[in-house]
Amino acid sequence: MSDYAGGPVAALRRIAFLLERAREDTRRIQAFRSAAAVILPLGDDEVEARAAAGTLTDLAGIGPSTAAVIADACRGVVPARLAALEAEHVGPLATGGRELRGQLRGDCHSHSDWSDGGSPIEEMAMTAMELGHEYLVLTDHSPRLKVARGLSAERLTRQLGVVAAINDHLGGAFTLLKGIEVDILDDGSLDQTDELLAELDVRVASVHSKLAMDADAMTRRMLGAVRNPRTNVLGHCTGRLVTGNRGTRRQSQFDARAVFEACRESNTAVEINSRPERRDPPTRLLQLARDQGCLFSIDSDAHAPGQLDMLDYGCERAEEAGIDADRIVNTWPRDRLLEWANRD
Q1: Residues whose CB falls within 8 Å of the CB of residue 87, separated by 6 or more in sequence, listed in order
Q2: Of 4, 160, 208, 235, which is most buried, counting CB atoms within 10 Å of its CB?
Q3: pTM of the prediction?
């Protein structure tokens, strides 16, 4: 076996990351993240002593599989589970878009366990740093989306304090930006107070309800949102699902030419959602938005740390569509992004 110096917590986190990246079963993934959380507060000496004595499974949250990973890492060898996953899943997720992927400085759409994500804010930020991001926008859901534990104004205010504390701890090496994925309501208004939206760095506006509404009504709804000066990014514009464990869903019907023209006039970016089950916008609409002169944001819409790497898919699609890198807002440095997002 090869030497391994990463330690047991790093090994467990890496296994979870690779499983998420491969879209494996959530319960299996959570076992490794939970095990990492169990041993993190323990001293190295205690973990190593338990590994040597075979008593790791006496700890709540540590099972035979995770105990084997910890024991191997404590002995300084690459855990067999980690080696197998590295061999199977290492490397780019997509064959194209590699040059553009290298130009992305961050990600404007991500979720934590404050809403419907699977990991704490700190874990999302740490993984983004490990991937080489300069910034990550945290965009948990707004209150109307109760199924996703959308954040009330009070909870979002508390989250902003957590984000500030994380940034203080990081000392400027990386920036976690304050954001939201705000629901576009039926009348085109946004599902949060204007005062609170003004406190954020970046705002993604998305339709999550009544996706099959009449095309004229949907067009008016989307036009209202993209023309709102607080909206920075139009998220997964058609709402479609093309594959995955949630099944498939037809795309919403709306006047795409009118919506994208409004995006161009309002300086609102059209999201290229990188999740494989979305591929949103569809190719025809992506090309239309390109021809209309829109800005874009290539986003992971990550609900787990390993999904942050799904930007690969969005970069491949943007390259295929021939979209210039400078029209993609998350190729911009942080200060340029913030100046654009908070223009008067």
Answers
A1: none
A2: 235
A3: 0.94
Main-chain phi, psi angles of 268, to 5 degrees: -95, 130
Closest by CA to 21, choosing from 275, 242, 247, is 275
Q: How far apart are CA 119 and CA 124, in angstroms?
A: 7
- Residue 171, C-beta contacts closer than 8 angstroms, at least 6 positions apart: none
What single letter denotes the amino acid at residue 78? Answer: V
Q: Cβ distance 181 to 206 under 8 Å?
A: yes
| Residue among 163, 221, 204 nearest 329 (CA) | 204
Nearest partner of 304 among 30, 122, 110, 118, judged by Cα: 118
Tell me phi and psi for residue 319, to 5 degrees.
-65, -45
Would you say 268 and 234 are in contact if contact means Cβ atoms under 8 Å apart? yes
Provide Rg for the chain, Cα atoms: 21
Tens digit of each residue's pLDDT, the chain (344 residues): 579 999 999 999 999 999 999 988 888 899 999 999 999 999 899 999 999 999 999 999 999 999 999 999 999 999 999 999 999 998 999 999 999 999 999 999 999 999 999 999 999 999 999 999 999 999 999 999 999 999 999 999 999 999 999 999 999 889 999 999 999 999 999 999 999 999 999 999 999 999 999 999 999 999 999 999 999 999 999 999 998 778 899 999 999 999 999 999 999 999 999 999 999 999 999 999 999 999 999 999 999 999 999 999 999 999 999 999 999 999 999 999 999 999 86
Which helix (H) or strand (E) is 273 found in, with range? strand 269-273
